[in-house]
Write a structure and sequence with these properties.
homotetramer; 284 residues; alpha/beta; seven-stranded mixed beta sheet; Formyl-FH4-Hydrolase_C (chains A, B, C, D); EC 3.5.1.10 (chains A, B, C, D); PurU_ACT (chains A, B, C, D)
């Protein structure tokens, strides 16, 4: 059996679901997952399907051509179609914090993530040894205000060379250039160590401590030009009390960061996220 | 606009979704919610739809007849169809504990529950005053081993008289007779004060305390003949520690019981639950 | 047996715990609960004790005098001492939302709250019937910008007449005057329907929806002059997704508001909260 | 400054706290943490203290002798005293599952765990490469019913050779012999992949799926002779629904197992757990 995943969004119209499911039936596909969402305010329709086909007579390119002509064109759809075997290629950007890096590489090595990690880029050399432990190419790309253009070019070259589909900032402590954001639109995932929109920017644990909150959080989101303002993919929280110091907040936060980032990576790699109007539709 | 909700289950077959959504399109309905589930082990298909129709030319009985002929018969479906205005009628069974009763009546009075509560039945007279506060008929139906048959008959008479659709046991401390269970199959909701299947039966908080668990729970489920073994609708938990006494467990548990039972009642009243093979499909 | 609860805070110094526990021992008291906290940054010591005494020879006023002379004076302590029987008297301020009101009155009637509710004040007449159901005096006190002074005076008169210890704003939709805040310092509890400091002010569910958060929250806090900026007592959260409308946020939020406010009320009434530097110490 | 941690338990008696805190004051120690618990049913007192001493004149052995004579003997205390620098030495037992192993070694490498890991023991050779990545000695110790005695002896020899303080079973799929349990009483931590006492024994995710639970869990506990019956250290849960397959349960469960086991290891290594009557006191 061959499996494909289809993501669709378009203006909401009558008979979209009927038309798509009819089509799948007509080419002898079996729908094993269907979820859909209508944004009533914006009148936008979103859909995610997984279908199975028997392997013989299977021609993904023919299906794509057909789909475009029979469905995408008449309904004016934006759409993507993936076969089971296409694993997205992910670049990790890191600086000095190693906890998210260890977590991601551990999960990757344990076979939990449906993706390839051909490349780690860092603006520091500290984590080279970690990359080597896991036998993943590590590239040191210095990046400061002074050499921003040079740094960005080197990043882009490496991303191209390694044929990267999406980027994960695993506590990467430098800003991403607008040019890189534009080239990887909705393909750069960041982990911010607060419950956004509370405490954007630097030192959120310190701010949370000062405010006396009883719950701290972490947020993974797609990177946009506005700092910590991109579409949110996943959030989670942990309880804290007066008895916890800032160091306790940071330590508890590490677990949140790890978990929330890992979930966002998995959702993205499994093509379960769609972005619209600075928000995400996440089909679980 | 008129809204209907359709619940379907049948053997999984090709083209069910396409056929149903085509049909809705063909009668000018607009699908505003569709969720579906396939139990792969049992090869059973489940579906829940909400559709809107413009009010003129609307004839629910004609749609039902049509649906039976064109879809239910060929696919051998079990199905239910509800219009927006049909609020289910719920009977509350209580004994002496008042916290769930206050919570349900508070929510009901605040307009949060899409149902009617025409009747409260109790095997004790203690909570009569609570029912009166909320102006709901209260019937004292003694029920012990000795007068089981008599008690059951009185219950059945009242349920019939008040035209009751489903029953909620809000910490009702008597067993329900097999006959009543049979007449209200998958229509009797109980709240058990543990995280089932841990600690079924009597005094679960005491057992949880003795075992030294770090988390306690509550479970709402449909009542079957096996004690605390029916299909689970909803569960939730709360953290406890060595510093909590049994009384603390009970007090924390009250919040769980209230919340879990209220959620189950709402899900059931909104026709979001389906039962199969002693499990529930809950379409959120 | 007689039970007392003691709350202490003072500059952190050597031998405070030893001195206090020695003193309790010296008067034949038995410590059944002791928790303490040191704010290392501010060098402040906090302590909460519960002690039991055999009923004969018991003289709370003598103990208070003794405590002041032997401990409070030398250590320069701020302190409070309560006997078991002193239930704080709470006024409820409401407007039109009834869900928190029903929840609090239900819990109160079910005997879960160690306090008295002699008074409900509202700037609308809508909830009078609810107060009557629970047989609690309801006072309609209009309050707008134009009659602020008059409204405040009437509130203060009622609070005095009913001998009120603390105030709970159960979705009371008017601001509290600085004068009233000053007279009830750290004795006015508000429930805000967001995860503070995210979304302060009006319409937080709408803002949360627009931002596309995956978790919503509620926060109970002591009222200070800064809007939604007072010391946080308790927070909790619920998961949301793209499939939830603003109405769903509001409905889920009602459960959070109820729960978080009820917990804060209980903590306050049990003398488990202490305020310092716009933060709370909550001894669980 | 030197820091020590003291754990005490004994029959509950008057003036224990006063005596201990007086003693610490008398030797110029500063209490920076004190928590205590009384098991009222069993009349047992538990206490955990952290104290700081200025480094000069510091003599831990003298303090221990003193403490025994002045406090432990008169109050008949069981007690332990640790200096800050004594990191416990932990052996990891694994079989074929690698997710907990990666997680623990990642945390260890990131400096999050106050312990040493000098030794990994496995009844299979599969995970040798993982141990090598992290440069930790890996010993293959076959263990089956037939060579149980031989296997146990080899385990004991290694534990002695590496001077091991406590053992963590990171999804080790063999039983631990009564002899080893006796030699490491309350020093062997297991992770069980269910919410105990629900679903003890083999294949808990399969049982949970079959029962139709809405929440799954994981439990870390000290190993005793009764299977999955030892004192519980930590538990956590995750929500599941009808849409999740057994494979989904297992994948979600991996995150729970990782997190719950990591927390239990940290609590144990920080000397925050005490065992009594098959339950734990966990001082957070």
């Amino acid at each position: 059996m061959q499996k494909i995943t289809i993501l669709i969004h378009c203006e909401d119209q009558k008979a979209i679901i009927a038309s798509v499911t009819n089509y799948i039936s007509s080419i002898d596909g079996n729908i094993i997952y269907l979820d859909q969402h209508v944004d009533a305010d914006e009148n936008v329709f979103f859909m995610r399907l997984e279908c199975e086909f028997s392997a013989k007579n299977w021609n993904i390119e023919a299906i794509k051509t057909d789909f475009q002509a029979k469905l995408a064109a008449p309904f004016n759809m934006s759409w993507e179609m993936y076969t089971q075997n296409e694993k997205p290629r992910m670049a990790l950007f890191v600086s000095k914090y190693d906890h998210c890096l260890y977590d991601i590489l551990g999960r990757y090595s344990a076979g939990e993530l449906p993706l390839e990690i051909p490349l780690i880029i860092s603006n520091h050399e500290d984590l080279k040894a970690v990359a080597e432990r896991f036998s993943i190419p590590f590239h040191y790309v210095p990046f400061t205000k002074d050499i921003k253009t040079e740094g960005e070019q080197k990043q882009l070259d490496l991303l191209k060379e390694y044929n990267i589909d999406f980027i994960v900032l695993a506590r990467y402590m430098q800003i991403i250039t607008p040019n890189l954001i534009a080239q990887y639109k909705n393909q750069i995932i960041n982990i911010h160590h607060s419950f956004l929109p509370a405490f954007p920017g630097a030192k959120p644990y310190h701010s949370a401590f000062k405010r006396g909150v009883k719950i701290i959080g972490a947020t993974s989101h797609y990177v946009t030009e506005g700092l910590d303002e991109g579409p949110i993919i996943e959030q989670d929280i942990a309880r804290v009390s007066h008895s916890h110091s800032i160091e306790d907040f940071i330590m508890k936060g590490r677990d949140l960061e790890r978990m929330v980032l890992a979930r966002a990576i998995k959702l993205h790699a499994e093509r379960k996220t769609m972005v619209y109007d600075n928000k995400t539709v996440v089909f679980l």
